[in-house]
Amino acid sequence: MILSAAVLVSHLAGAPALSPYQPEPVELQRARQLMLSRPSECVALTNFFLQRKEVDPAKMVNSRQDFDHQELAKRYRTREQSQAAWQIQALCQANEGLSLPADTSINQAIKLAKRYRQPDAEAASLIIKAKLVLAQQDTEQANSLLEEAGLLLTVNAPPSLKAALPLFQASVLLYQHRFDEARLAFEQIRVQAQQQGEYIQQAWANYLLGEYYLLLQQDELALSHYVETLNLLGKRRQYYLKAMAADKAATLHASLGKGEQAMHYANQATTEFELLGNPTLLISSLLNLGRVTRAGNDASLALVYFFNALDLVKIQGDANLMARLYLEIGHSYRLLKTYAEARHYLTLARASFKRNQDIPHQVDTLLQLGQLHLEQQEHGLALIQLDQARKLAELQDDVPRLIESHRLLALLFETSGSPTQALVHHKAFHAYYERASQLNRLLTQSLVQESDQQLQQERELSGLRRQNEQLQQDKQRFTLLAFSLGLIAPLLLYGWLRNHIRSRRLLQSNTELQQSLLLEPRTGLPNWRQLMLRLPQEMAKRQQRSEQWYLNEAQAEPFNDKIYYLLLHVPFMVDLSERIGLAHAATLQKELGEYLQGRIHPKARLYDLREGQFIYVISQRQVNSLQQTVASLERMFAEFPSHFHLDRRLAIGIIGHPFLPKAPHTLDDMRLGNILYLAMAAAHQLVEQTGESAWVKLLAVDCQQAAFFNGDIRHCCIQAILKGLVKVNSSHKKQQIDWSALASEPAISI
């Protein structure tokens, strides 16, 4: 098998969502994350999601102000979401080794795409089906599926699908042993990806080129491509590809006798597989790390890696993998000359391989047991083990293992004083070694094709020369035209420069005007327009994080990623012009704006809403203590230098967004603003009663009472405060607040 099934199935595992009408549900996002690390959970998530009823996409329009639409989105699925779920389920089932269920799932996705006439979605499903078929080495069907997918792709298809198609077509060529065509295709993909800055695509092309050179036994070239793949990925979170490239680099360094480099890349592969979270791949990496470490004459450290892998295998219960670890542990104990432990683990491995009828590994175990008895001068037992290994290898016509069997038998008979028998096995050893050498020469004959490629390149060079002659003739014809255009070029250049300078001035004026519209002219602070531009994006971001926190399985801690909004009422800014005059008021307001910009927290924002009202916005992560933040705001206004007598008693209302972390979409910006003004009105009452600055913070309790806030938000919030569903924190006694006086009452008609 040229490429591992895991490589083919995992590539583009995070294919783009095919649902352009709305964001992908949280269940499918989580399933994509678990596709390689925990495929069984990924299958369970997609099965759970597919139990929803399918509805028309027109009914699934997002509206953060309509609670019914949000509830509808949590109970139903659209056509596009259904297709994405079937695609993800197929990939997860394939990564779990369930080929038949995976084929059934992807066929369902193809069926849905055909029914709803969505060519791009059908093409994506066909590419995934081609991956699954190629993993079974059915190159003809895979090629047919990829050709069909190429015909279906539209101009507006996602770029990742367009990039995936040529990469898999080149992989099919490699499977079909059309080596030159495959190499040219991979090189073209790599160059194109490099020009477009698509480093992940370039890294995959590099990795598959390494597979190409490894197949042709050009280890140095293969190694350079694996190392280049790792350099391209750098610190990107492409754990699987980095782990595979590092694992191959470690194996090649070990075969070239570079022990330190081999251990470095083997450790890197193990680290990446551990970050990926897939225990099966991590076990395989630990096996390779142990072998490389043992090859570097450190069998003790190799045992540590093997036993770590054994602990993971015992959790999975894979008997075959456990037997392979017993073999490696026994081999390591033999090198350490701990013969009792070596015999114990090798005997366990042999019994397991015999039950599973795994003849190649059974031969390896018998060879290790033979060497163990040979080192202990137990020639009779060694002969039994080695001769049985030879017979099993002959049944399989396993040339490498026959070479090792005859080598050890020859050594056994030499040490036991039987030169005639030793000579027989030496002859057999050399015969099989020569046979293996001839096989290697046959495998490398494909390199002869490079001469044909060179001939083709020379023909292409001749064609380029003819094209060059034609271009020279065209150049002479266009020279006269260029001379004519050169005469009128100065006029065209002057007109172009004049229009360019004029457009630059207009563009600069437009930019300055747009910036001035976002600032309050009196104080120079950001105004309400700038607040409204940023507020929807800021709220949507916190709503998404709140949803992820709520759906997270381990929500032991409360939601701690809110945005605090502090609405400040500054009394001396209300009637400033009336009290001190326009000129002094303008000067004082400008000085106040410059003063405040230099005093606020570097990660906070302050907006001037006019009429003496300011909004101070700061992230919860930047606030150690809310009381300290309020105190710093009061101190900031109190320390503002002015020779006029100013009323500096601040009334501050405070809320955090999301106001309801478990139902973040319930309240939009207008309803949150009403709650914020209610908090400031309560603070006004405290200021009037105490004659001091005051603040009031409203905080919903940690429960899902979203439905309680339907209706007039001010009235609902006051009722929630009275019922204890909204907590009140303040700088003074909160019992002094008369909430009934703050209720909105309609005007009474006379």
Automatic annotation (TrEMBL):
Residues 454-481 form a coiled coil. Keywords: Coiled coil, Membrane, Transmembrane, Transmembrane helix. The chain crosses the membrane at residues 478-497. It comes from the Bacteria. The keyword S-adenosyl-L-methionine does not apply. The keyword Amino-acid biosynthesis does not apply. InterPro entries: Rev_trsase/Diguanyl_cyclase (IPR043128), TPR-like_helical_dom_sf (IPR011990), TPR_rpt (IPR019734). This is GGDEF domain-containing protein. It comes from Oceanisphaera arctica. The lineage of its organism: Bacteria, Pseudomonadati, Pseudomonadota, Gammaproteobacteria, Aeromonadales.
